[in-house]
Write a structure and sequence with these properties.
Helix content is 64%, strand content 12%. It is built from ten helices and seven strands. The two termini are 27 Å apart.
Length: 351
């Protein structure tokens, strides 16, 4: 049913862009008919003019009908109507010339008027018919491409939702398991971890399923997440988050920063002994929002960047910004990895 409605809408739109009805030629034909019927005398040039104008009017009317009637969905049907209208126009023109030809006047060669009518019709109607068919085909191609793009985007969004659904319970289960272990060792620390988890969920839940969120909300979520890991890893782990109010108002895909932070924790910080840290830096440069998550952890390993989180970020950036956004992972000279996102700095609704 949806396809039928879309096709009908496209056909109607194509018909609206088709050839115009020959209103002025119709009026001219009617005027000539009145003049010929009530005029004092008839002349050969008047009969020929009426024949040619009548033929053009009928051929143009046939062209309009072929484009405006929605049942003619195929080009072969429309061309058949155009050809039939041309034949009818030729017959009507010759008939009108014979009827209104002045009596006692020598006629011209039998082939001359049909040739003139056909040349006139081919010179005026045929180019218009070809142009309309090209426009119709181009419009249909663009509509099909738009429909394909919309379907691909819907499939991508569904896949992203599934990927995001896999990320959320991963962190929650790990945090709850750690809290349960802490209850028997340090009840106060377990309560503190639960408070950070509540702060994380309070920042995450309102827009977890939306296509965009503000960077400020994303950074609040990341800070609560890192505070939980600070409890787990102890004093050896430190972190910092830097962002101005202008930057915090920019829109980003949900979990964009979180995925980079989680990737840094899992592949760089946790496996690395000794003091470790994560720094989140953000700024706007030439209209682009720059987000950098740097760590001094283990650095590049074989499995780095293969997780669901980074795939989620890549897919969302592609869906929302296309080639205007970029995700990069680079090794740091001092050890560790710097993961960066560059995307257009926008505060309005993303389309």
């Amino acid at each position: 049913m949806h396809t039928d409605i879309t096709t009908h809408h496209q056909d109607k739109k194509a018909a609206d862009n088709s050839a115009a009805w020959p209103l002025l030629p119709i009026l001219a034909v009617l005027g000539l008919l009145v003049y010929v019927n009530f005029g004092v005398s008839r002349s050969a040039w008047l009969a020929d003019s009426l024949a040619i104008l009548l033929a053009y009017t009928l051929a143009q009317t046939g062209l309009c009908l072929s484009q405006k009637i929605v049942w003619f969905k195929h080009a072969s049907q429309r061309w058949a109507i155009v050809v039939l209208s041309m034949l009818l126009a030729l017959f009507a023109g010759l008939k009108a010339d014979a009827v209104f030809w002045p009596a006692m006047t020598t006629g011209h060669a039998n082939w001359l008027l049909p040739a003139v009518i056909l040349v006139f019709i081919f010179a005026t109607i045929l180019p218009a018919a070809i142009d309309l068919e090209i426009r119709r085909r181009t419009q249909a191609s663009l509509a099909a491409e738009a429909s394909k793009h919309k379907m691909e985007r819907q499939m991508l969004e569904a896949r992203l939702a599934a990927l995001q659904g896999q990320i959320e319970p991963h962190f929650l289960f790990n945090t709850l398991a750690n809290t349960r272990a802490l209850i028997h060792q340090d009840a106060a620390m377990a309560e503190q971890m639960l408070n950070h988890l509540i702060a994380y969920l309070r920042a995450a839940m309102p827009d977890m399923r939306l296509s965009t969120t503000t960077l400020g909300q994303e950074l609040d979520r990341a800070a609560a997440y890192l505070q939980i890991f600070q409890i787990r890893l102890g004093a050896r782990f430190q972190f910092s988050v830097h962002a101005t109010d202008e930057v915090r108002a920019c829109l980003v895909p949900p979990l964009a920063v979180m995925s980079l932070v989680e990737n840094a924790i899992k592949h760089g910080i946790e496996p690395q002994p000794g003091d470790v840290r994560i720094d989140i830096r953000t700024h706007i440069k030439t209209g682009q929002l720059q987000i950098k998550v740097s760590d001094n952890g283990r650095g590049f390993q074989d499995e780095l960047g293969s997780g669901i989180g980074l795939l989620n970020v890549q897919e969302r950036l592609l869906a929302l910004f296309g080639e205007q956004a970029e995700l990069q992972l680079q090794p740091r000279d001092t050890g560790g990895v710097c993961a960066s996102i560059s995307l257009p700095a926008r505060t309005g609704e993303l389309t």
